[in-house]
Design a protein that fits this description.
Length: 461
């Protein structure tokens, strides 16, 4: 990572330190009012687009809006030339006709109340709500023992609780104060929904928890959840029964709505999962994590069809963007321990984040992985570049107004998610693929949530 960008990432992160007074452009303050006053004859949508472009340029370049417009001298001001000028400034590397850019230009709506709060603390909920149906389960008993100071309440159902309690994005900061034990009745195993028009890797998902204590800037959970707290289904045996009637030659994992292991010391589910899947050798179960919470996993005899996979990014990116997570060194050390215990290991470079000099950092990380984990023990490596829905983009702006990951050039992609341009993504994938292939010809590498043409060009599938 070059120094300037590194400085940018550091400057924009308020983890554990005092932050100087944030500049006004970070929150978009006053830009809408400025545009409304300066361009009263533009319609509302046009003013919204100009406001959005000015905000993004001002935030990235640390400029006031008057400075951005100083070089635009076309009189009388018409919308198309102004938008074109601003698009060129916002997307200087994009070579094609800027007016054809599928840029996402939604309203700038940043509420400082929604900003993420960084508190590294042990999960010890103030309130534990237990659905009537699972009060007698072993998980309910265990939680009572582990959290004697918590306030416990029996509820008819989580669904009813949510209906009677208001929640907005600010409440996401308080999620660790609330824990819910629920009975899952229907939603056991299913195909990974992937992304529209993307090539599926055939993955299946099982939700053994919802919620996370980490603060990855790109995480979709704050944009997706409309309820507070960390949820654990307490009827694990029903999941096992459901699996017996499901496809059994699948790759399945529990890391979609939660980190698979971060709360494992509380649920104590991993040994039971390993034990269960031993009897289904055609299936592969994946624990997908950024945690180092592997003591329970490594305390039991592993099975050959269990993989423990870490999502990884270069050290400085992980430090600045995957807030509150264990460092990359800690994650790789945990992977080494799981390898020694006899588990297969997976890695997810997802999201790969673009910045000047990214290649060097990612190549170094690939090499470090292969130096520590034998290729024959690596079950798979997935690659996925940063992407998000429009809703998530706005959530990131609100929760992490000082972020730099949104300053890169990103456009509405084939699936209406905001992505790097196709040529940029292709180049990133090809480079990542070559870094991996230099170390192993055999490790299975696949692209996550990418279109068919891209997969074909990069990995030939
Ligand atoms: S580890 Fe996964 S679930 Fe947790 S905050 Fe990061 S992206 Fe979200």
């Amino acid at each position: 990572m070059n120094e300037e960008k590194m400085d940018g990432l550091n400057r924009y992160t308020n983890l554990g330190g005092s932050e100087s007074e944030p500049p006004r452009f970070v929150y978009g303050s006053g830009i809408k009012e400025f545009v409304d006053a300066k361009y009263p004859r533009f319609g509302e949508t046009k003013r919204q687009e100009i406001t959005r472009l000015l905000y993004e340029i001002a935030k990235r370049d640390k400029l006031d809006v008057e400075d951005i417009l100083r070089d635009f001298s076309v009189e009388p001001v018409r919308f198309d030339p102004l938008k074109s000028y601003l698009l060129k400034r916002r997307f200087p590397k994009y070579k094609t006709n800027v007016l054809k850019i599928r840029a996402a230009l939604p309203k700038v709506e940043i509420n400082p109340r929604f900003e993420a709060r960084f508190e590294k603390k042990e999960f010890y909920p103030k309130y534990v709500y237990i659905e009537e149906a699972v009060t007698q389960t072993s998980l309910a008993q265990r939680i009572k023992q582990k959290f004697p100071e918590s306030k416990f309440e029996t509820i008819s159902s989580y669904r009813e609780y949510v209906k009677t309690h208001s929640y907005d994005l600010a409440g996401y900061n308080d999620r660790l104060d609330y824990c819910f034990l629920t009975q899952e009745k229907f939603d056991f195993f299913k195909n990974c929904p992937c992304s529209p028009k993307s090539v599926s890797c055939g993955y299946h998902i099982v939700n053994l928890g919802v919620g996370c204590s980490y603060e990855c800037m790109y995480c979709f959970l704050p944009a997706y959840l409309n309820s507070p707290g960390i949820q654990f289904p307490a009827n694990l045996e029903d999941f096992f029964d459901a699996f017996k009637a499901y496809h059994q030659d699948i790759r399945v994992g529990s890391g979609e709505f939660a980190d698979s292991l971060v709360f494992d010391h509380i649920t104590e589910y991993s040994p039971q999962i390993v034990e269960f899947f031993k009897d289904y050798p055609k299936a592969t179960f994946e624990f997908k994590t950024k945690s180092v919470n592997i003591d329970l996993l490594t305390s039991v005899k592993p099975a050959g069809n269990i993989a423990v996979a870490w999502t990884v990014n270069p050290k400085d990116v992980a430090k600045q963007v995957e807030c509150l997570t264990p460092s990359i060194d800690e994650r790789l050390n945990a992977a080494v321990r799981c390898q020694a215990a006899g588990y297969k290991i997976g890695f997810h470079f997802d999201p790969v984040i673009h910045y000047e000099g990214w290649e060097k950092d990612y190549e170094q990380l690939v090499n470090e992985i292969f130096d520590k984990i034998e290729a024959k023990n690596i079950a798979w490596i997935s690659l996925g570049t940063l992407r998000m829905t429009m809703g998530l983009k706005k959530t990131i702006e609100n929760r992490f107004p000082h972020n730099t990951i949104l300053d890169e050039e990103m456009f509405l992609g084939y699936d209406d998610k905001i992505r790097y341009a196709a040529n940029v993504r292709q180049s990133m994938y090809e480079k990542m693929f070559s870094f991996i292939r230099r170390r192993s010809q055999k490790v299975w590498v696949y692209l996550c949530m990418e279109e068919k043409g891209m997969c074909g060009k990069v990995v030939g599938a």
